[in-house]
């Protein structure tokens, strides 16, 4: 049996790694030989956003690299759709696996659906209920054309129930918890980022921005001003800048510059980010994945958006939504820092809604089921329907 896994952005590489390991383990354990062909669309094409992740996460190099690159959402997705279709015709997979909510997800799912190839969507059922986010459109499209919906939480399952998709949906737990459990101690051993940046644990914050609502030129400077104020008045911030942010700041259209306390860096590898996040006083982000990683690592999180596809992080007490309101952000910072501790959830406590750390095995077991391969790869976790 052959599976084609379609990825293109760094969060997808993180999710792919445990699943890829579980697929290899299944073959070694005699649970069903599955050839996993990794296709990299090239949505993230910078080495710091892509290649380093394959090295750190011990993922086999992609068998196919489509090198699509950047562009408007429509143009990029269109080029991906054409290239993925050609690849699927050449590789003739028994199933296509897509991850998350990027343009690569939507293009991969649509290409497979049009060729009538079965599709598994990992991280199905997420909803921010904000159709202004491209990611929300991608999620909905992928869910509604997929044959196997692998949801990370019961909240995601509930969303799929409301959309009459539950008959092909399963709660497997969240594969990003698997990734944290596998990589957090590895990061402690291998990353020297704190020493390189001369940082002491608990004496800095971490910030990331990449959503268009915060990185479009009209909004970016306002958000950066807020981060600069937090950095100078409350706690220094390490800010790995997304290439989109760097491009705007280098375009000559603005004279904005960061204070010394807002330490802007190039994008960092996964292990460096995990170590930084684990020892940070708090995180400020618009990333969905970082909200969960912060919760798993017991680091307080401030989400610079008005909604989240991960309400479990708020319910667990580890995350607060502020949007890009200066007053809300500063109030959240002051509240967290005055508490003198992280969220009232350790990694184990915060993990409960996200499974038991066996999501990858659950996922591969469901994929084998869908392919008609009997297996006993993993005991079933969570309520299914």
Protein architecture, described:
With 385 residues, the protein is α/β, with parallel strands linked by helices. The protein has two domains: 2-174 and 355-370, Rossmann fold; 180-352, Glycogen Phosphorylase B (Rossmann fold). 46% of the residues lie in helices and 13% in strands. It is built from 17 helices and 13 strands. A seven-stranded parallel beta sheet has the order 3-2-1-4-5-6-7, with helices on both faces. Strands 10-9-8-11-12-13 form a six-stranded parallel beta sheet, with helices on both faces. Helix 4 runs parallel beside helix 5 (134-145). The model has no long low-confidence stretch (mean pLDDT 90).
Q: What share of the residues lie within helices?
A: 40-55%
CATH superfamily of the largest domain: Glycogen Phosphorylase B
Instruction: Give the topology string: H per helix, E per strand.
Output: EHEHEHEHEHEHEHHEHHEHEHEHEHEHHH
Task: Report the strand count.
Answer: 13
Q: What is the CATH topology assignment of the largest domain? A: Rossmann fold
Q: How much strand?
A: 5-15%
State the strand order across the main sheet.
3-2-1-4-5-6-7
CATH architecture name of the largest domain: 3-Layer(aba) Sandwich
């Amino acid at each position: 049996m052959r599976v084609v896994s379609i990825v293109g952005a760094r969060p997808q590489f993180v999710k792919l790694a445990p699943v890829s390991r579980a697929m290899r383990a299944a073959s070694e354990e005699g649970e069903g030989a599955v050839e996993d062909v990794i296709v990299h669309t090239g949505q993230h094409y910078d080495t710091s956003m892509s290649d380093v992740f394959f090295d750190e996460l011990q993922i086999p190099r992609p068998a196919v690299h489509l090198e699509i690159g950047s562009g408007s959402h429509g143009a990029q997705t269109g080029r991906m759709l054409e290239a993925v279709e050609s690849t699927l015709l050449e590789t003739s997979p028994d199933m296509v696996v897509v991850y998350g909510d990027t343009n690569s997800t939507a293009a991969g799912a649509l290409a497979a659906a049009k060729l009538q190839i079965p599709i598994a969507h990992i991280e199905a059922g997420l909803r921010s209920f904000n159709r202004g986010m491209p990611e929300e459109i991608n999620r909905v499209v992928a869910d509604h054309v997929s044959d196997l919906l692998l949801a990370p939480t019961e909240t995601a399952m509930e969303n799929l129930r409301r959309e009459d998709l539950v008959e092909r949906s399963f709660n497997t737990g969240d594969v990003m918890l698997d990734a944290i459990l596998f990589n957090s101690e590895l990061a402690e051993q291998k990353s020297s980022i704190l020493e390189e940046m001369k940082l002491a644990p608990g004496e800095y914050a971490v910030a990331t921005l990449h959503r268009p609502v915060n990185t479009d030129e009209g909004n970016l400077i306002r958000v950066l001003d807020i981060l600069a104020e937090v950095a100078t008045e409350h706690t220094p911030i390490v800010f790995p800048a997304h290439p989109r942010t760097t491009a705007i700041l280098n375009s000559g259209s603005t004279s904005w510059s960061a204070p010394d306390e807002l330490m802007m860096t190039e994008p960092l590898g996964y292990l460096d980010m995990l170590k930084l996040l684990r020892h940070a006083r708090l995180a400020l982000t618009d990333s969905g994945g970082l909200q969960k990683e912060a919760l798993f690592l017991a680091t307080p999180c401030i989400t610079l958006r008005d909604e989240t596809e991960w309400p479990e992080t708020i319910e667990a007490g580890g995350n607060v939504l502020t949007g890009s309101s200066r007053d809300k952000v500063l109030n959240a910072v002051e509240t967290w820092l005055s508490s003198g501790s992280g969220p009232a959830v350790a990694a184990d406590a915060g993990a409960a809604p996200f499974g038991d750390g066996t999501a990858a095995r659950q996922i591969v077991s469901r994929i084998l089921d869908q392919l008609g391969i009997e297996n006993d790869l993993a005991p079933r976790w969570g309520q299914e329907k």
